[in-house]
Amino acid sequence: MKKKLLCLLLAAAMVFSLFGCRSNDPTPPDDNTPGDSQQTPNTPDQNTPDVTPTSNYKIGIITGTASQGDEEITQANKMKEKYPDMIVTATYPDNFTTETETVISNAVAMASDPDVKAIVWCQAIPGTTAAINKVRETRDDIIFIVGTPGEDPGVIDPAADLVFQVDEPGCGIVIPPQAKAQGAKTMIHSSFPRHMSYALIVARHENLIKYCEQEGIKLVDVTAPDPTGDSGMTGAQQFILEDVPRQIAQYGEDTVFFTTNCGMQEPLIRSVFENHAIYTLQCCPSPFHAFPAALNIDMSGHEADVEYMMEQLQAKVDEAGMNGRVSTWGVPCNMLFISAGVEYARKVLDGKTNGVVDDAAIRETIAECADQFTEGMQMTLTNYEDDSTNGPVTNHYLVMADFVTFN
Predict the structure, then answer these.
(1) What would the DSSP string read from start to end of 329-370?
(2) Residues of the chain below pLDDT 70
(3) What is the 3-state secondary structure (H, E, C) of 136-151?
């Protein structure tokens, strides 16, 4: 199935962030409840490659460095251990917002190997679309599967063949009742203007305002330093360490803290534990995201062991007397996207799917990979709804899971 090539050249200047998850209970009101759409699906005008099944292929994985998020690079290495002759890996620069040309050149270098037939990219930072379009100028046969995009859907969806993302707008619906159940009376939402110009983060924030009000929670917006600004990540992290006790002094311990940035999670978790506040969810939901470093949990030999991580988290919660005040997902979202991306690419390249975007096979693969992290964990997948076309986008999947609360 050939589609018209859409070239989008992007000079991006946003930092990625991420997203939320679905509570066991309660059920959100019908007007904004995430769910399966009954509308006719909308397929982006993208360049979907024709795939001829072959047994001789490689799959590339592009992630950030360990300093940006060790989960992604850890999972990339795990997939390389599983398929040593098949997987090739690369990283994008830490300061990707000012090094877009390096982001592009790294992808082009990976695609220069004719045996590379698919590239899995997570997190899909700003510049990913430009890199994909550059690669497609000479390699229109490569399948691109991206997770956690840092670009708006209207930009990334036409370029990538498949997009996985946590349901950010849905997070805005389910976080407030979860926080209420944890005892929250106030929510501190820390972000910065660049993140707050991003469509799905804005949608999550709007829902947070609405549903916090319904739950009787006072939402307070705090402008934090941009980690790519003059003070860098160090300055942003220092701000969080100073701001949490300041906010608790004003609003009390029954305050839940949320920030849109990955690098701010570690100091936020540490300070929340020290000050006995409430922590409902990371921007990128995962039991591994920032908890080990923040709480000094030794992960040696257990880098992708969810059961071990959950046991260690419960022990830290018990030790700090934070029972009932800490929650996360039981599945690491970005690690899931990399694992599912590789396994689904294999199915496509092995001729086991109905085209590049096979809804049934995609759902099956997500379920299989989620089960490998946490047995029996149910995932909910819905297609992103594009308001401009009034219908779901068939290659963009929003993923949700249940909260795990440490009682």
Answers:
(1) ESS-HHHHHHHHHHHHHHHHHTT-SSSS--HHHHHHHHHHHH
(2) 1-55, 68-69, 389
(3) HCCCCCCEEEEEEECC
Q: How far apart are CA 305 and CA 78, in angstroms?
A: 12
Residue 112: count other Cβ atoms within 10 Å of its Cβ: 11
Q: Is the Cβ–Cβ distance between 272 and 248 less than 8 Å?
A: no
For residue 50, the model assigns a pLDDT of 59
Full-model pTM? 0.83
Cα–Cα distance for residue pair 72/122, rounded to 1 Å: 7
The b-or-e profile of 118-132 (16+ CB within 10 A means b, else e) is bbbbbbbbbbbbbbb
Confidence (pLDDT) at 54: 62
Bridge pairing between strands 403-405 and 327-329: antiparallel
Counting residues of the chain whose pLDDT is more than 90, the rounded percentage is: 75
Q: Identify residue 151 by its one-letter amino acid code.
A: E
SS3 5: coil
**Residue 218 near residue 187, CB atoms below 8 Å:** yes
Cβ within 8 Å of residue 80, ≥6 positions away: 61, 87, 88, 89
Q: At what angle do helices 199-215 and 168-181 cross, to 10 degrees?
A: 30
